[in-house]
């Protein structure tokens, strides 16, 4: 009969543990919890009425609407791209595969401001395609298409990076089994591939969406800050803040903070429930 | 319902996985593809399943061109080594998959599918497990689900890729006996890949021994074991002592032992012989011509004892197998003096480059004059001299 070795905590060890825990908690409070609370406190500083006034102004409404619109385009596009890219990366061997992997990661390694500037350089009035686009009456920069493009670029890696390691680990035997059993391509995808990656996909989409709605840098460059037309929620927050409209700024900011909290809650629930079906690392490892 | 494979070639970037492979599989036959990893056996199976395609060659089943058909048109059942069960589906849903993906016209009614699933689960002794998920089953149970799933589409051909490879030894033996019985009940043409010779010898009607993308020999387990066609088969199947022989007149000698009446009419000057451990006769008293040996070590393995023998007259030590009972009766211990002589041997002449000539195999038996032997195999089908075990790349 052997007993499991009892874990004895000496005084110094207990003390060390306590101090470390305390330090971690204190750090979290000062750097995360306090700012988050501050957002809501500031937003409601002049009462609920002022808060709801602030978020129901036309500018706020159009910013919310635009943010949702941009995300509603960018996220599905990156969902499709992410699945396609992950499929290619996980199922095939080809020349330049590692290069493709690097390209998928590119948006993580490039500063968002640069990402925005690249689009200005390409599609802006002085840019490569600018004059041609102008001649045909298409405006991309300082307009909604620019916002969508910049957001798509920034959020491109989220879905793919989440799926690649999972699909590589799962291998393609189940798909081969499905084919031999008589499934056609679509049946194989919808009955075998997709169910196997569904939680990781949801996870990736969630992160992608949070980023798409919260992106500031790249969007700021291509937006042109035309109130009511090309300002998303983060840009609206900045503009209000610069105009000393603190309640307004924090009220709109609280919407983003709420989005973050909801995302965090769903993400945690997913990790807790389907942890083994979700790639262990956060995308991009930034 | 014959399955006819003709001159299949398949190259992977750096090596040939299949090299001019031809094989004919009879209806209802249980055929094992046996070989070391990298010998091409799995590639051959994947080609039959439609998951891989050869660069050249033909596969005909019942006169139907198999290579022109997509996997879903071939009506084969495939069982993977690692089961490849759909992890998000229950056992019953897994088994029903092949029926549910059929076009509306060909799909059986729901009740029919349910009844068939029920019946199949009973057949693989898993009735009552339908609502479980694969992760809730043991390895042996999972493999039986995979088998039921493959059988559900009523395949013309059942393909098994190392089906017991991932199971532990005891389950493996039980499951393969069970599989053999199932095959006898169903009479389904079955091709089965394995690197485990015991499995192949025990299960198969015929065995195709593969090495480096070629088929070395096709035959019944008895033929493969008793009359190996090439040096590779001698070494890969069972154990064999290798002896170097040199000519002296009309006879060949190995360390003083005489292999008389060579069948080659003086053609070859050198040869090598393979002698199975159970074909060495041991004696404690001198025997004319026998090798003098010293017993170095005894490995007792249940009913059989493996003996390591040092023979001064030969360049290699010998391994002999005798029944444990005989060991006790003879009172043998390490260090004992013994006289050893072969009773059977498979002898291959060597050509000028020292490569064995498999066509001129000589099945030698002590005291029996052998007729000249010419094997009915083409020179091209045998990798001459390349009898080393290829520890190469998987597939």
TrEMBL record, chain A:
Gene3D superfamilies xrefs: MetI-like
Localization annotation: Cell membrane
Binding partners and assembly: The complex is composed of two ATP-binding proteins (CysA), two transmembrane proteins (CysT and CysW) and a solute-binding protein (CysP).
Family annotation (InterPro entries): CysW_permease (IPR011866), MetI-like (IPR000515), MetI-like_sf (IPR035906), Sulph_transpt2 (IPR005667)
Main location (coarse class): membrane
Recorded topology in the membrane: Multi-pass membrane protein
Keyword Transmembrane in record: yes
Keyword annotations of the record: Membrane, Sulfate transport, Transmembrane, Transmembrane helix, Transport
Keyword Membrane tagged: yes
Top-level taxon of origin: Bacteria
Domain ABC transmembrane type-1: 64-265
The name this protein goes by in its record: Sulfate ABC transporter permease subunit CysW
Function: Part of the ABC transporter complex CysAWTP (TC 3.A.1.6.1) involved in sulfate/thiosulfate import. Probably responsible for the translocation of the substrate across the membrane.
Membrane-crossing segments per the record: 20-44, 64-90, 102-125, 137-160, 246-266
From TrEMBL, chain B:
InterPro entries hit by this protein: AAA+_ATPase, ABC_SmlMolc_Importer, ABC_transporter-like_ATP-bd, ABC_transporter-like_CS, Mo/tungstate-bd_C_term_dom, P-loop_NTPase, Sulph_transpt1, TOBE-like
Domain ABC transporter: 3-237
Keyword vocabulary terms for this entry: ATP-binding, Cell membrane, Membrane, Nucleotide-binding, Sulfate transport, Translocase, Transport
Pfam short name (any one): ABC_tran
Tree of life domain: Bacteria
One GO molecular-function entry: ATP binding
Coiled-coil ranges per UniProt: none
Alphabetical list of PROSITE patterns matching this protein: ABC_TRANSPORTER_1, ABC_TRANSPORTER_2
UniProt protein name: ABC transporter ATP-binding protein
UniProt source species: Frateuria flava
Lineage per the UniProt record: Bacteria, Pseudomonadati, Pseudomonadota, Gammaproteobacteria, Lysobacterales
């Amino acid at each position: 009969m052997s007993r499991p070795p009892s874990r004895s905590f000496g005084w110094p060890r207990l003390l060390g543990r306590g101090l470390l825990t305390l330090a971690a908690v204190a750090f979290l409070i000062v750097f995360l919890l306090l700012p988050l609370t501050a957002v809501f406190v500031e937003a409601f500083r002049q009462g609920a009425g002022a808060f709801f006034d602030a978020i129901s102004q036309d500018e706020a409404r159009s910013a919310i609407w635009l943010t949702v619109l941009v995300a509603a385009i960018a996220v599905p596009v990156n969902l499709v791209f992410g699945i396609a890219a992950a499929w290619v990366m996980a199922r095939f061997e080809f020349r330049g595969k590692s290069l493709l992997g690097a390209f998928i990661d590119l948006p993580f390694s490039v500063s968002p401001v640069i990402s925005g500037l690249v689009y200005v350089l390409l599609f802006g009035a002085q840019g490569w395609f600018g004059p041609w686009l102008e001649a045909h009456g298409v405006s991309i920069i300082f307009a909604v298409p620019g916002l969508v493009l910049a957001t798509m670029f920034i959020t491109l890696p989220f879905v793919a990076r989440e799926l690649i390691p999972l699909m590589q680990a799962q291998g393609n035997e189940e798909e081969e089994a499905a084919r031999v059993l008589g499934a056609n391509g679509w049946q194989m995808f919808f009955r075998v591939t997709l169910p196997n990656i569904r939680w990781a996909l949801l996870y990736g989409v969630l992160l992608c969406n949070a980023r798409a709605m919260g992106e500031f840098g790249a969007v700021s460059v291509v937006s042109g800050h035309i109130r009511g037309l090309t300002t998303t929620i983060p840009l609206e927050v900045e503009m209000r803040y610069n105009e000393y409209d603190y309640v307004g700024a924090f009220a709109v900011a609280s919407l983003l903070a709420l989005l973050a909290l909801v995302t965090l809650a769903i993400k945690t629930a997913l990790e807790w429930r389907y942890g083994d079906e979700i790639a262990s690392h956060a995308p991009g490892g930034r | 319902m014959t399955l006819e494979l003709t001159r299949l070639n398949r190259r992977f970037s750096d090596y040939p996985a299949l090299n001019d492979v031809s094989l004919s599989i009879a209806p209802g036959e249980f055929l094992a593809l046996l070989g070391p990893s990298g010998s091409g056996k799995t590639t051959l199976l994947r080609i039959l399943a439609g998951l891989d395609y050869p660069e050249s060659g033909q596969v005909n089943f019942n006169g139907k061109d198999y290579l022109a058909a997509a996997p879903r048109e071939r009506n084969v059942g495939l069982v993977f080594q690692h089961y490849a069960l759909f992890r998000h589906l229950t056992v019953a849903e897994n088994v029903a998959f092949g029926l549910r993906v059929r076009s509306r016209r060909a799909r059986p009614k729901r009740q029919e599918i349910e009844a068939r699933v029920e019946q199949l689960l009973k057949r693989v002794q898993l009735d009552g497990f339908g609502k479980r998920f694969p992760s809730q089953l043991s390895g042996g149970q999972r493999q039986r689900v995979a088998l039921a799933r493959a059988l559900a589409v009523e395949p013309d051909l059942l393909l098994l890729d190392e089906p017991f490879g991932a199971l532990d030894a005891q389950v493996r033996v039980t499951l393969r006996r069970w599989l053999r019985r199932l095959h006898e009940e169903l009479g389904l043409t079955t091709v089965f890949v394995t690197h485990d010779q015991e499995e192949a010898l025990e299960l198969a009607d015929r065995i195709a021994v593969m090495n480096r993308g070629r088929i070395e020999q096709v035959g019944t387990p008895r033929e493969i074991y008793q009359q190996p066609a090439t040096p590779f088969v001698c070494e890969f199947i069972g154990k064999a002592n290798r002896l170097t022989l040199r000519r002296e007149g009309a006879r060949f000698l190995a360390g003083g032992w005489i292999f008389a009446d060579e069948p080659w009419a003086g053609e070859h000057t050198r040869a090598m012989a393979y002698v199975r451990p159970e074909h060495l006769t041991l004696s404690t008293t001198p025997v004319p011509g026998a090798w003098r040996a010293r017993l170095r070590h005894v490995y007792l393995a249940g009913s059989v004892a493996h003996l390591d023998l040092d023979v001064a007259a030969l360049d290699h030590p010998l391994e002999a197998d005798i029944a444990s009972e005989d060991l006790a009766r003879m009172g043998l211990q390490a260090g004992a003096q013994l006289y050893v002589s072969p009773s059977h041997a498979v002898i291959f002449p060597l050509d000028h480059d020292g490569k064995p000539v498999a066509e001129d195999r000589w099945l030698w038996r002590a005291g029996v004059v052998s007729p000249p032997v010419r094997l009915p195999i083409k020179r091209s089908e045998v990798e001459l001299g390349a009898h080393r075990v290829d520890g190469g790349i998987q597939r």
